[in-house]
Structures are given as structure tokens and as C-alpha cells.
């Protein structure tokens, strides 16, 4: 077992070497949000008013979808308090940014800030971590799904990235809304209902085919973009008993211009060390991590991470391994034998003496 440290431990080693300004909010990030908002509304108006050819409408849908995703990345930053400090303004701006992804700011802070960040890759308490073999064994539906051939599962897993964020967010709403005090529940409900009401109301206002181009197709595209990152953030890493971001998170690398468009969302390990720091300073944090713990840090190009995701099964086995229950083949996770250049199953699951006894 490797020695694990909490995110606070790593942060305390790096903090003294960072400039004071790195711990201050960066309101200038809002200019990027304003640009995306103008592009989004401008493209929607163009689709609605002009009788444009199908292909032009589709191109504009792509632009709207990409803007939805970027607004989501900015909303994530804002709701961590790294852009403005005032709570009401933070929630208001975060709410606008997450409007297209239909996620309320109060729900997001509870689910993401207070739960995912605190319990990252904890088998029981991280709402975003993937299934374990024990859970699959207990569900006949899951057992059926995992009996499908590997490539079929991988194909549907990737296809589902076009709606997983919205689906997961809706699921989180129904799980977490009950945990708010009764007095606050109505506002969490409103933050869920209002965005849906806007988007569905818009369908009656502009007509179904226009609505497909200005909301539905962009929503699929935005889901695919945000899930492209989210699915690589932790799913190749092990589940761990200590919330150690170097063990349980992966930073992907993308071309510089993509980092600019996506507000440095690729720096996920850095984000877990300093969630309340503006992502503007994450390249600096990365340098320090690589200097101090080069052997513990996980980083790979986005394309390799997606390839690794395609080639490995999505069920945790004993925390550090991934297992394909169809043939009981076991694969490593990052730091525990997963070599993204050459992904091969390591071995067939060995029966433990207790398994034999149960049988
Ligand atoms: Zn994360
Ligand atoms: Zn976060």
C-alpha cells in the first residue's frame, strides 16, 4: 500500500511557494463568460430569425453547445468562490452559467463542493465515483449490462456521454434536495424547475425544429464536452481510503487554445489540491507538484485518457483494479499497473479463500 496524504497536506507544502495573488478571486474571468453569453444568444437569434440552410444551423448548434460547456466550466469556478466572493452574487452568476446544463447552484455546491471534493473516490461517499464489483453483483440489471461484449459496452458508454451530465445531475437533484432544510428546499426546487421551464417554454415559442437547433443538439454537444473531461478526471484512478488527489485524480493535457476556451479545466489534480483557487494559477501549481512529487503525479494527453477509458472496464475491484465481469479479467488503475501506452488485462480474477467458502 502506498503512503497517501490528504489534499490539505499537499496544499500546505506548496502554498508557501505561491504568490499572494493566487489566493485572490479573479473577477476578470467574467469577461469570458460574457463573450460566451453573447455568442450563445447571437447564434440562437440567427437560427430563430433567418431561414438558414441545415448545415449552417448545425454549425451554429455546435457553437452554442461548445459555449454551453464553457459556461459550465466557468460556473464550476464561480461556485467554488474563485471569481467573486459575495455569496449571493456567486450563486446568481453560477446559476446563469449552469442554466444551459440545467443544474442549480445550491444543488451543485452540495453535490460537488461539499461531497465530491470532500470524499473524492471514496467507494461509499463520492457521488461521482464508479461502481464496484460488489454493487454490480447485487443488481440483476447491472449484471445483465455487464454481460454484454466489452466493445458493445464501451460503445454505449461513449455514446452515453452525450447525455450523462444531465441525467446524473437530475439524479443528484432528487437525492440531495431532501437533505436541505425544509425552509431552503423550495429554492433548490426553483433552481431545478426554472431552467427546465425556460428551455421547454422556448420550444413552444420558437417551434420544435428551431428548438432542436438552439437547445437540444447543443445540450448533447455540451454534455459530450463536459463528460469528456469528467469521465477522465477520476475513472482511471483507484478508489482510495484517503482523499489523496495525486492518487485519485488525473490531469489531462490539451492544446493551449483549448485550455483558454475551457478555463483550464484540464488541470483536475491541481483543482483538487486548491479548489478555491482560480484555475488561472493552476499551471503554476502543476510546476510545483511535478517538482515535488513527479513519481506520484498522473498526467496524460486527453486523447490517450479517452483511449484508456475505452479499453478498460468500468467496475472497481478491490479499489485498485478494474474488472470485466464477463470473463473476470483484471486491469490495473493509474499508479497500480495501468500503462496507457499498452493496455492489456493483467490477470484473471483469482478466487480468494473467502469467495470459495461463499460458493
Ligand atoms: Zn473531481
Ligand atoms: Zn470542483
From TrEMBL:
InterPro entries: FA_desaturase_dom, Fatty_acid_desaturase
GO biological process, one term: lipid biosynthetic process
Any one GO CC term of the record: membrane
UniProt xrefs under Pfam families: FA_desaturase (PF00487)
Bilayer-crossing regions: 30-49, 55-75, 87-108, 154-174, 186-205, 211-230
Keywords: Membrane, Transmembrane, Transmembrane helix
Domain Fatty acid desaturase: 57-300
A GO molecular-function descriptor: oxidoreductase activity, acting on paired donors, with oxidation of a pair of donors resulting in the reduction of molecular oxygen to two molecules of water
Name of the protein in its database record: Fatty acid desaturase
Record organism: Salipaludibacillus aurantiacus
